Write the C-alpha cells for this entry.
Amino acid sequence: MINYGGNMKLLFTLDSKNYTDDLDIIERFAVRGLICKNGLWAMQKSNTGEYKIPGGGIEKGEGKEEALYREVLEETGLHVLNNSIREIGEVLEVRRDNFNSEQKYISHSYYYFCEVDEVISDTCMSENELARGYQLEWESMAEIIAENRILCTEIWQKRDLQLLEWVRENMNK
C-alpha cells in the first residue's frame, strides 16, 4: 500500500457504511487545490452549474505537490507558484466501490491552499470533464456554496461542498 498521507490532519470522514469489512480494499489518492485571488476562488464550473475544486489522482511515482501542480494546470490552465502550497488537510471517503460491489473503496483527498501566477495555459481535461463542460470560473465562496447546496447529488460533490463549508468556517480562526 502507498502511504501519501504522512501526518496531514484528517478534517472529516464521509462513510456510507454500505460495505462489509471482509471486502477487498481499493484505495485512491488525490490532491485538490484551493486558489483565491481578490476574494474569488478558482473552480471548475460545469455546464449544469455545479462547482468542482480543481484536482485529481496522484499518478504512480508522483509526489503530492507534483500532482497538485499537474492537476491544477490540466483542469484550469493555472500554474501553481512554487513554495505557495499550504496544507489544509485530508478528507477520507469510505464506501462500497461503485464499479465492483465486492470491493471497499477508500479515497484520500489531500487539500491545499495555493497561489497561481497570471499565465493561463490550455487545459487537458478528461473525457468526463469535457462532457460535463467544465471550465475555469472565478467566484465568491458564498455563491459556490449556495449553488452546490442545490446541485450536488454525487458523493464527490458533497465532499467538496463539505470541505468548502469547513474552509469558510475555519478561515478566520
Summary: Residues 10-170 form a domain with the Nucleoside Triphosphate Pyrophosphohydrolase fold (CATH 3.90.79.10). The mean pLDDT is 93. The chain has one domain: 10-170.
